[in-house]
Specification:
Layout (H helix, E strand, L loop, with lengths): L1 H10 L4 H5 L1 H32 L2 H26 L4 H23 L7 H28 L5 H29 L2 H19 L16 H13 L1 H17 L5 H8 L4 H20 L10 H19 L5 H29 L2 H32 L2 H22 L2 H4 L11
Helix pairs in contact: 3-4, 3-6, 3-7, 3-8, 4-6, 4-15, 5-6, 5-8, 6-15, 7-12, 7-14, 10-13, 10-14, 10-15, 10-16, 11-12, 12-14, 13-14, 13-16, 15-16
């Protein structure tokens, strides 16, 4: 019995950070609600764009509308996160996101909804998230002991994947059974709840009281990044996976075309990676014992590429959903260790700015991937776009592992080659 208990603790997600830190619990609840709100939009906005335009290219272009403010504002957000009380950024960000959701409700409620507000409000929402995310990521080391950071990031992944699994599925159901305006209303409520929860995290001033926001402070973050190839390789490996191997912009066309379904089918395609990721996250008790964290990152991204490549050939919905779930599970392993390596390596005075670059890659990469998959699909076919993207992801992973060995050689116990 005792042996089974030890095995269970090894594989079930470690909830020690939630037990030990009240501030982390408040942050966790707020993040869960905020992620749920964002995941509702992941389905609703692309579906509405496709419904109004019947164009995969238009859905892909939505990624550009989000990518540009995400990149520009994340750099500013990182500098702000290293200068002010991070709690204020977290609360203000959620309230601002609620306002964008209200704008989506108003547009969807008109007799003839317009396409342009979807692009504008999606861009504004991306910019707000870009300012908010560095503060959220940089806050964890202030709440948790260093040895609990892998478990904390695993819990964050679990939370994110719960939202990724339930949000899209519920959004697809609500669009099919109720309306887009009702779906967007749910999103607004979720963001307001997140703002209330994040008030409880307490003050989160950067070490040393922070510094002023300026171009020089932003440049300082990039100088540090340039000096640490380990962090560069972690960013590149994720960008490689999301740019080439993220076919989500094609899900609306695949759901109603290849799989002959409706909005509910589209919701299932968006939700499937989240379901797989959730299963991986809740069985992540092993992450704290992994020393070769960089190798897990590279292998996981390789698994993602294989799963997406095979998915591109499939026309049977249940098998397609399973493959997307496998990809989502692999993404969790990659994300947990990339986040841990970043936060352990970077000093607190720079965490906001380096977390901003991380946000640009993690959140911006899929938007670039939307454009890449949409353009390739419009020039060739949906299947070719998915399969070629998966193969390119695999080739990119091999290249990064070969020419940037710092990630492959990294050891969490400090043994082996240094980060730089």
């Amino acid at each position: 019995m005792r042996e089974r208990s030890r095995i269970g603790r090894r594989f079930i997600v470690d909830v020690t950070p939630l037990r030990e830190s009240t501030r982390f619990r408040y942050l966790y609840i707020g993040q869960l609600l905020a992620n749920f709100g964002r995941q509702v939009t992941v389905v609703a906005v692309p579906f509405q764009v496709f419904e109004l335009t019947n164009s995969t290219l238009a859905v892909g272009a939505l990624g550009v509308a989000q990518f540009i403010p995400l990149i520009t504002m994340s750099l500013v957000g990182g500098a702000i996160a290293d200068a002010v009380d991070r709690r204020k950024l977290l609360v203000a960000g959620q309230l601002s996101m609620a306002l964008t959701a209200v704008g989506l409700v108003m547009n969807a409620s008109t007799a003839q909804p317009a396409v342009w507000p979807l692009f504008v409000l999606s861009g504004v929402s991306a910019g707000i998230s870009a300012i908010n995310n560095p503060a959220r990521m940089a806050s964890l080391p202030a709440m948790l002991r260093r040895d609990l950071l892998p478990a904390g990031f695993a819990l964050n992944q679990t939370m994110h994947e719960v939202a990724s699994a339930l949000g899209p599925a519920l959004a697809g159901f609500m669009i099919a059974q109720l309306s887009l305006s009702a779906t967007y209303s749910l999103q607004a409520v979720a963001f307001i709840g997140a703002a209330v929860a994040m008030i409880g995290v307490g003050r989160l001033r950067p070490e040393g009281g922070g510094r002023s926001v300026s171009l020089s402070s932003i440049r300082e973050g990039f100088r540090y990044l340039k000096s640490v190839p380990l962090i560069q390789s972690g960013f590149l490996i994720d960008l490689n996976a999301m740019f080439f191997g993220m076919p989500r912009a094609l899900f609306p066309a695949m759901g109603v075309g290849i799989f002959a379904g409706d909005a509910s089918t589209v919701g299932l395609l968006y939700a499937a990676p989240g379901v797989g990721a959730l299963l991986a996250a809740v069985t992540s008790g092993w992450v704290g014992s992994v020393s070769r964290q960089g190798r897990v990152v590279l292998i996981a991204v390789g698994v993602w590429g294989v799963a997406i490549t095979i998915f591109g050939f499939i026309g049977f919905l249940p098998l397609a959903l399973i493959l997307l779930a496998v990809a989502g599970a692999a993404d969790v392993a990659s994300a947990v260790f990339r986040n841990t390596i970043l936060q352990v390596t970077v000093p607190d005075t720079l965490r906001g700015r380096l977390s901003a670059v991380h946000t640009s890659v993690v959140a911006g990469g899929p938007h670039l991937g939307d454009l890449e998959s949409g353009v390739v699909a419009s020039l060739t076919s949906i299947r070719f776009s998915v399969v070629s993207g998966g193969i390119a992801c695999l080739l990119g992973t091999l290249a990064i592992g070969r020419y940037m060995p710092q990630l492959w050689n990294y050891r969490a116990d400090g043994v082996g080659p240094p980060a730089d």
